[in-house]
Amino acid sequence: KKIDFFFVQSLFIDFFCDSNILQTIITQFINFAITPIFNSFKSITTFTHADKAVSSIFNSDFSYLVQTYLLANNGDANAQYDLAVMYDIGRGVAEDDKEALTWYLKAAEQGNVYAQNNLGVMYDKGIEGVVENDNKALQWYLKAAKQGYANAQNNLAVMYDRGGNGILKDDKAALKWYRKAADQGYADAQYTLGWRHAKGKGVLKDYKIAIKWFLKAAEQGNIYAQNNLAVMYNTGQGVVKDNQVALSWYLKSAEQGNIYAQNNLGVIYDNGVEGILENDIEAIKWYLKAAEQGYADAQYNLALMYDLGGQGVLEDDKEAVKWYRKLAKRGYANAQYNLGVMYQHGEGVTKDMTKAKFWIKKAYESDDAEASEAAKASWNKFELWKY
Q1: Average of per-residue pLDDT across 215-225
Q2: Which of 217, 227, 211, 215 is nearest to 186 (CA)?
Q3: C-alpha–C-alpha distance, residues 68 and 66, integer Å
Q4: Per-residue pLDDT reduced to its tens digit, 1-28
Q5: SS3 112
Q6: Is residue 252 part of a domain?
């Protein structure tokens, strides 16, 4: 505890000689250290708690805070950036977006690329205490991007990509900055270039180039690139079809929580593909992971598995109803129809023709041609209008 305190004292001696500056720092030290301690003691009733309070203030974070403040206040751009981050995330101080903005500005105006980028993010997202301003966001991203900072280059590209709020959509500018960031190894930009080449968005469609960029991003752990790379190996787009390679990339992505990869794994195990045996238990496992995150396709696939049963999976009408209902309430016509049928036959629920009519009618009136056609057939065959 004492080491941190005397370290602060030594900073006063090492960094400041001028008595006016020293007085300012002492005042700041009182504000940062003595006042918090005093305020802590006011609500403390035992020496044990008091000891913990002092310990929590004179810890490494506090020591670093004071050192950083001294340097920042003396004009050190890196320290100004560090102090801004501390206010931004609440490390050693109460989280304070306005203070973070103040110190980011000081550092950014001295050319600190990290501060410039973070300022861009604050104005881009309109973080609490900062009014969203796309023009200011663009301005700061551009300053950092021109200094070669890949994160800012990607953020700038995203702004040109989406346009809006006073920023003109500019595909050429977006591609320019995506490429600069991607060439420096920035995974998000590499993924985006892969996606653009796979879709032919702003560039000629070229699956081989898409594969190149997806692979670079996937090897860095980008979950979307991993999933898309898996899809391309799964379907043989731009590469020789290889389900084992596809499976390995799906797994890497799915294990990091990507709902699309989790559902895709479910589909592979549900149906079986060349070289990979059907495995309903694995299918349910992966469908469930994506379904619990709210992914509609996985919820429907999971409901179907419980509805129909399978190898090693017992039919469970109640679980099927649970997942159909979630989707039906969100307007998914196939789920509405299937839920209606389950009410009609009393499968997993008490038979209720009024509810059957309600859900089948919803599907009948939907824009989904397949669900609407099936619902129409049930509507007429069972004369559901009577209920």
Answers
A1: 98
A2: 217
A3: 5
A4: 333 333 333 333 334 444 444 445 545 5
A5: coil
A6: no
For residue 283, is pLDDT > 80? yes
Give me the half-sphere count of Cα atoms (radius 13 Å) on the Cβ side of residue 111.
3
Q: What are 40's two structure tokens?
A: 């802590």
How many domains does the chain fold into?
2
Confidence of residue 353 (pLDDT cuts 50, 70, 90): very high
Q: Are 319 and 347 in contact (CB under 8 A)?
A: no
Contact 145, 113 (CB under 8 A): no
- Enclosing domain of residue 31: 1-74
In a domain, 340, yes or no: yes
Eight-class DSSP state of 312: T
Mean pLDDT over 125-147 rounds to 93
Are 361 and 328 within 8 A, CB to CB?
no
Which of 32, 56, 74 corresponds to the end of one domain? 74
DSSP label at 34? I
Nearest to 186 by CA among 160, 206, 158: 158
| pLDDT of 130 | 86
Examine the pLDDT at 366 and tell me if it is beyond 60: yes
* Cβ contacts of 134 within 8 Å, gap of 6 or more: 123, 124, 159, 164, 165, 166, 167
Beta partners for 276? 273
Q: Which of 74, 94, 114 is the last residue of a domain?
A: 74
Q: Does 385 reside within a domain?
A: yes
C-alpha to C-alpha distance for 77 and 83, rounded to whole angstroms: 10
Rounded Cα gap, residues 306 and 54, in angstroms? 58
Task: Report the pLDDT averaged over residues 34-39.
Answer: 45
**Amino acid letter for position 367:** D
pLDDT at 166: 84
Q: Read off the pTM.
A: 0.81
Domain-embedded: residue 190: no
Torsions phi, psi for 164 (to 5 deg): 95, 160
* Selected residue with higher pLDDT from 207 and 94: 207
> How many CB atoms are closer than 10 A to CB 30?
12
